[in-house]
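## Example pair
The file below holds two records. Each record gives the amino-acid sequence first, followed by its structure token line.
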Amino acid sequence: MFDAPRKLIEVSGLKIHFPIHGGFLRRRVGQVKAVDGVSFDIVEGETLGLVGESGCGKSTCGRALLRLYDLTEGSIRIDGKEIGDADHATLRRIRPKMQMVFQDPQASLNPRMTLSRIIGEPLDEHTNLGRKEKLARIYELMDAVGLNRSFANRYPHEFSGGQRQRIGIARAIALNPSFIVCDEPIAALDVSIQAQVVNLLEDLQEKFDLTYLFISHDLSMVRHIADRVAVMYLGRVVELTTRDRLYTQPLHPYTEALLSSVPEPDPSLATLRDRVILQGDVPSPANPPRGCNFSTRCPRVMDICHRLDPQSKEVAPGHFVACHLHDPRINEIASEVAAEQEAHQEHPTRRET
């Protein structure tokens, strides 16, 4: 009998709201709900894909897991330790366990530092290695990501985009972390290089027993690398399940629309596919719609969707979806909402004078 996989990352009710200031006195006039009540777990050794449209809160969520942002509300536990409210001294001790690979490999590397200094910087900050030991570790990391040792004294502008991303990956694994957030690591790379970088990430995961949160809008690449996939829309996770189930049996209308937009290389099959074309634009996270966030664009919207926010339900083992269409209590809930509305119309609340 096998033991259940251990949860390395546990996220519960995560909210990241950014204040909006306006007027002459720069008072707070609102807030942008970048992440608005996200919950999920990542088990040790797996890759969780996080997908969605640009601006849905994927990168903000990933950065929040590493406490690059302060939490508005919620809980983040890494290896059983709560870091949601941890101070800077505590976070510094935990930093070696959690690292990040950034989207733009050029912007994330210091142009005034050589490759060896960039990769060696985490070693300077968190270890007491001597000069020879540190250089040996730098060469070891360069070998692991496929960089020639003769490049050690070159600067970032002397490398291609794929090579720069390899430098960023080498820096991320320098301290032997257990968890890495990959924030769209292939988005800024040529298509011919993307597969090489993804294959490198998979090889390193197997070699060093890494756990990934892989953020991307490339659904084809996520299907290749992820074990489970979470779909985000306007700051919330609307569906979460295994990779195979998500791509073969999507339940949320937004997931269906996303998957229908993936290009089909076979022309004969492409003509047979039903494309789901969403109408309208994504609402502003500073002023989300009442009820379900997707209600303004959903092709299968119901009256209750404009009134009540759907809660995430486990509709099948390991398959979570936040949609009234798949709530077994939908008829009962709709009747309750209708009764409340009728009662409110018959007996409106009187204002006190």
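Second record, same layout:
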Amino acid sequence: MATTALNPPQSSPENTPLRVTFPDNRLLVDLCGEYDRNLAQIEQAFDVHLLRRGNELSIIGDEAACRRAEETLRALYDRLEAGRPVEAADVSAAIRFGKPTRHDAEKGGDQLEMFRGGQITIRTRKKQIEPRSRHQAEYVRQLFENELVFGLGPAGTGKTYLAVAVAVSMFIEGHVDRILLSRPAVEAGERLGFLPGDMKEKIDPYMQPLYDALNDFLPARQLGKLIEEKRIEIAPLAFMRGRTLSNAFVVLDEAQNTTPMQMKMFLTRLGEGSRMAVTGDMTQIDLPRGAMSGLIEAERILRRVPGIGFTRFDARDVVRHPLVARIIEAYEKAGDPDA
């Protein structure tokens, strides 16, 4: 493993290295990552250079940037001490939401609770999920506390993924008897009738993101059995009419593509012992031009109703490739309604 940054600059009185010591050298190895890739990620993010000697890291660069890098390194080391792994996405989250400097704290900085000791963990059969931003932590908390929660924001912020994770967790722990995942079968210019195959084959392409999320949380054999037993259902929104959903965790994805009538129909399916999560991105509406989105209307009407939670995500919450967040921010600055 490489243990030093390539060609680090020489220190000067204006550029004195900030030295950080880590007690456990084995954890420090994990902190650095394979071929020091975690260090490289931090160097690039803060425009600093990191030099390792033994169990000490020297941080060379602008003083404020060095402090931010130190806080990020300490946050990730704390995570390793708690027995949790550090992956590329965790490094990215720590860079964006890790422990703030004193200056950040005075400004009310966006400190991530999972790096502060107040750990939030969603347990499923295959993995444990942790929120990676303040908004994600708030959203998960609301999903556990409220019977109806709206997650609003751009793609890649974990709205649906976290909702399905909470649904699986509550199902495993016996809080609900079944899981129902739904989406409106609306895509750009296509209709179900124009696709080949029977009804299931027509619907499955629209439902695939929900299958993908479930496959992340449940073993394939168990998932197949639960679907066969109808304890997990994945169905288009049109199939919800006339049903009362009791003792279930229900997730409506892509809700921006519902009409006001469909949204009201869906929300009034809520039965005894059930919970609902409604997710959507109001900038990605695929309804016919001029048609009102049921999600926009629902937010306007229900915003102040007790017992209903709303979480609004933004580009800082994107947990896909970092470039996705920059793309979203660029569109937002440009004022493009289709961003």
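Notes on the second record: Residues 63-81 form the longest helix (19 residues). The CA atoms of residues 11 and 17 lie 6 Å apart.
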